[in-house]
Amino acid sequence: ERNVRLRFASHIHLGHGSYLDEGVYIHACPAGVEIGPNTLVMHGAVLHVYNFRDLPHAGIRIGRDSLIGEYTVIRGQGGVTIGDRVYTSPLTQIIAVNHVFDDPQRPFIEQGITAEGIVIEDDVWLGSGAVITDGVHIGKGAVVAAGAVVTRDVPAHTVVAGVPAKEIRKIDG
User: Fold this and answer.
1) Which of 52, 111, 138, 159 ranks highest by number of CB atoms within 10 Å?
2) Does the structure show a pLDDT above 80 at 51?
3) What helix, strand, coil percent values describe the chain, rounded to 5?
4) What's the rounded Cα separation, in Å, for the pair 147 and 129?
């Protein structure tokens, strides 16, 4: 579509039937971005792998039949793996990088970063405005409520909500 911007395009792999909507920006420095078959990346989404520190796990991998919602931001410095049939609602943030700020005598920009990575298994739904922080693993079939800030792992088939996100129920079927 119009106004799609690709940086380091040779490091981007689009599966058959994948779709990039208007205004999508993908920055895929060397570790790259893979978007699986039939996955849709909607208007204004940003997939960004900025790896000037040579981080070993940097990159973004999205499975098949997934949907990356409007204006979602995915930062892949620590590595982001998203499974099949994962839906992110608009304005979701998946941020696999964080600043260290333990020393009050030094500016945070001099203290380095952490980049542990994020894993989101198959069949997960992330509600609008959800924030997934570095180091989190979200299990298969989980649901993250709108506006939740996920700072700890989410077990499979669990609904979490709040800031910070807490389990509100199991999905029993």
Assistant:
1) 138
2) no
3) 5, 35, 60
4) 5
